[in-house]
Amino acid sequence: MRLQDELREILYDLRDEKFKIFSQKLISQPEILGVKTPILKKIAKDLARRVKSEDLVKFKPFFHEEFAVKGYLIMLLKDDEVKFQLASCFVKSMPNWAICDQFAKIKFKDVKFANLLLKQCRGSDLEYEKRFYYVFFMSGFLDESELDGFLRDCLNEKDDRYYVKMAMAWVIAEIFIKFRQSALRLLETKKLDKFVQNKTISKIRDSFRVEKCVKDELLGLKI
């Protein structure tokens, strides 16, 4: 049985109509069957024992859950080179922010493959592939020495699409919490996109990890 046929049969048996209706309000595309994330992860782990990389190449997801399981299967691969080849194609097919953000947790043993994927996504014209650049960086950066080039990218970003700008605001807010001075210097320039600047400040102010006096001072940096 083909991977897609086997997976769809499994997913159909696990559908939850109430969860489907709830989820479809948050994620408009593609169609959702209504299977929760922990179950999808378990399905992927079970399938990973016997699914080959050739099966993943042939697998063309249609439902949201199929995209999720394919992403998890790629993430579970041990061979960095094969994982990168499949990931570099998968990021072009991601249909929504949820699949993007789940897949952005992908790990490579060799950092060169992570850097190649970041470079590819940084130059993309696709909304979710570009979003992946920001979300993947947030989950993968290790120390302040990596931030200068990334923050310059944020400053120079001209992409006006909603999910790209939301990702930028999210990651800059996280950088502020971990490396305050680097992010603060960026915000003080007031040269970021207006939406990104103000949304970043809003996200920082929502955090329990930032003191109230600092949150109040940040209001003066809104555009």
From TrEMBL:
Gene3D superfamilies named among the record's database cross-references: 1.25.10.90
Cited InterPro entries: ARM-type_fold, DNA_alkylation
Superkingdom of the organism of origin: Bacteria
Protein name from the UniProt record: DNA glycosylase, predicted DNA alkylation repair enzyme
